[in-house]
Amino acid sequence: MALENDPLFYSEFIKVFPDFSNKLTIMNSTIKTSDLEFCAMVRLNLDTKQIVQARHVSVKSIESKKYRIRKKLHLSTDIDMHIWMSKFNNIIEKCVYLYVIFN
Asked: Class for domain 9-90, per CATH?
């Protein structure tokens, strides 16, 4: 579905990963639906080339999207987004816990 740019992709993704968007939104309440959809594609381990082909956009557009999402999620450039997204549930629970403690 993701590779075919199917409009139902994200809703089906959320059925499999129900807390995914909520937890990302906790990290940054201004994150957009298009960012969440992109993060879902990264979570499924699609590389830049696959996302470019699926979304019919340029490599530069995807690189810019990655950069903006990194800023929103406070991820440094030395962190691999694919690995981070695959371990996301454990990471976000710790981050939310720390956020609650220190704020």
From this structure: mainly alpha
